[in-house]
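Bug report

Summary: structure tokens for TonB-dependent receptor differ between web form and batch submission.
Environment: batch mode, default settings.
Steps: 1) Submit the sequence below via batch. 2) Compare with the web form result.

Sequence submitted:
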Amino acid sequence: MKFKNNVLNQAIKFALATTTAGLFISSSAIAADEEQAKAKVNKNVEKIAVVGTRSAPRSIGDSPVPIDIIGGEELEKSGNTDMLELLKGAVPSFNVHQNPISDAASLVRPANLRGLPSDSTLVLLNGKRRHRASVIAFLGGGINDGAQGADISVIPSIAIKQVEVLRDGAAAQYGSDAIAGVMNFQLKDASEGGKLEVRHGQYYEGDGDTTQVSGNIGLPFTDNGFANLSFQYKTSDATSRSVQRPDAAGLAAAGVQDVSPLAQVWGAPEVDDDISIFGNVGLELTNDSEFYMFGNYSERDVRGGFYYRNPTSRPGVYGGNIRDVNGVNMRRPGDDNPDGQTAWDAATPTVLVGSLDGYDAQLDCPVVEIQANGAPDQSAIDSLTSANCFAFNETLPGGFTPNFGGNITDTSLTIGTKGMFTGGFLKDALYDISGTVGFNESRYFIYDTVNASLGLDSPRDFSPGKYSQLEKNFNLDISKGFDFDLAYDVNIAGGLEWHEETFTVTSGDVASFTAGEFTEQGFGIGSNGFPGFKPSDAGEYTRRNYAAFVDIEAPFTEDFLMGLALRFEDYDSFGTTTNYKVMAQYHVTEDLNVRGSISTGFRAPTVGQANVSNVQTSLDNGVLQDSALLPPTNPIAVQLGGTELEPEESQSYTFGAVYTIGDLFLTLDYYNIQVEDRISQSDKINLSQSDKDTLEAAGVPNVQSLAQVSFFTNDFDTTTQGIDLVANYTAELMGGSSTFSLAYNWNDTEVTQFSDITGAFKVKRLEEDLPNHRATFTLSQQWESISAFARANYYGEYQGVHVDYDATAKTADAAVTIDAEITYFMNESISFSVGAQNLFDQDAEKLDFAEAAGAPNNNWGGKYYETSPFGINGGFYYAKATYTF
């Protein structure tokens, strides 16, 4: 096809000549004469631009910086349907947790490349910047606390031609976020053929049933173009790796009614109607220009577990009120002790009781004491109605466990043109002009809870509001080779970028935030667990920035290549930043070359991090408490040490070697990343009464029930270093074609500076939660009608933590899991596969912490440490049928 012969060749040249494709390999590597040039380009096409196969190298051997290539076929053979899990199996320095109870982090899971938070990795789609998710991970498991990265999970593997993972700091090339590296997802671009796939599986425990239907089709777009379309539809049931909470079991034993047999669930959330549609279109306009367009629409509903509300101790709903030592009924915040006493050690706990006749009549209501067996006095509860009083123990006697969920919508569209100038000073220069719009919206829901201040008439389900993230990008890139009498042409690329980012908070339904008539009687305001955003909280926050950059690659000899990147950015919030990158590659022999780079980088605080406020329920030292996240410029935050956010700044260097001999391909790279002024959520700080009064005057809801506040801060510095080893070997063995792949990562993070705002335990989590050692060993085997795939995943020791509580922490053992799949090809079109992830059902580390803070062992109902790097759900098996045409 003419399109394939002309435009594809120009696209290849352009990808090699500019940084737009995320590979930073320029046309200066092309030989002087035309035949040598073609040979060099073809060599690079084999390693970079062609869909990865099991026999192709995973890293680009002639790149001055380390790059992993994971082909679409490899992605589809790992026993999982989530792109995050697929990448975790293929890239050892990439980690992701399942976050069973983590507020919004359960809806869009944050991931880590090289031990840095999710928003320190830049995500590209077809070489263009991907927008962030609207979800901010308020409970991000230490490393990702407060992170706001892109939602990689919306990308279906069936749409992907290959994934390129640039394992090097690249902010000087691409701008903010590329501190840890860059992940570029290349969409399929075939103009014919396609695939339809149906897959079903479940965990060995019999839960988590997952069904997925996906498809891809390539269509001609006139005679000179293509339209490649993909879709994926998926549903996943929830899982539970839980035991009954001891406090709930005790209440049931004491005769309390309606206590759930499993009061709190730790497991994967339920995912419904998870639909993703991706399209990629290209059209040759002339022999020297091409139009392109790609984008997506994705939507899913997620619903997961939350913390149990004990019917004898949950403040603002059930408990927290007492009588003084002389039996005087003391149940309201602010009441003076009539006897002038300040000691309450002999006080008797009571149930929170409200009067339907108003605040002045509350003290006349019967007192409902908590008995020695832990149950409320049922006879006293029964007497409430006749006294025109109430308690939530009447309608919800066994307590309740909210479910937290959301509807996540993600969409994007990129339109552009690229090609070659045919005249003037820029003759033969390559250009790329594009515009991108990306949008992500998270509408939150909380089910089976109450707005206690509305009394017994409170609804049980609420929509607390939504966050949305809108980003717009416009890019101009130009690249041209110049003859300076070096080995080959010196390639000079430059460009301009304009970026706008808008974060919007939309208020929730009235019942989710309103202060009902029973507020002054001590009942909590707003939907318990996640109070709604008030109209005064709603707002739209926008930031704009522009950038100019230049990239130069100079081949001084046939064996020695150097590159320089320089980028200037101007933000309308914090000002300007300039970053550089220098890299080099030297061929020592035909089989061995060495490479290295040194660079500076930055990550701008997101608009959401700078402006968001929220009330969340979390465990602190094992106790369930409400805490408020405030903007860092809020007066209370400023009083406690908050300041306006500044960008993170980084310095990094990488050096390594590439060795190729016969069918063996080996790369070894060392990296060191120093980040100053890292942005994260501060430790939760206890509030004084004067702090609460100030917050209440500022309109923060439910202030008297708040125990703590936190805010985003530039408060600590880290040094992360590590080693990446990648080895591939291909041979004809066992009567077929065999490929062996080994990938190993050692990663170590040290917090080199921090203050009390960060907190010592958070520092420990940053340094120890992730395994220092990760490795995968993969064997792929292909026969005439059968193929097989097996992967061993090694996870080194890590810090086991549960409910973000330091008393639970321990060093968890290293573990190995096995993934395997076997495929039978009935004919050229139809194949059947069976496989398993975690084939031998390796358990996560079991909880075994001792009693702490007076709480019994495992008072929160879990079985395993939630920081397990391979999850807590165990083995998963599946079957798959594929039709290829």
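Above is the batch result. After comparison, the two runs are identical; trailing whitespace caused the diff. Confidence is low (pLDDT under 50) at residues 1-59, 323-346, 851-856. The longest strand covers residues 706-733.
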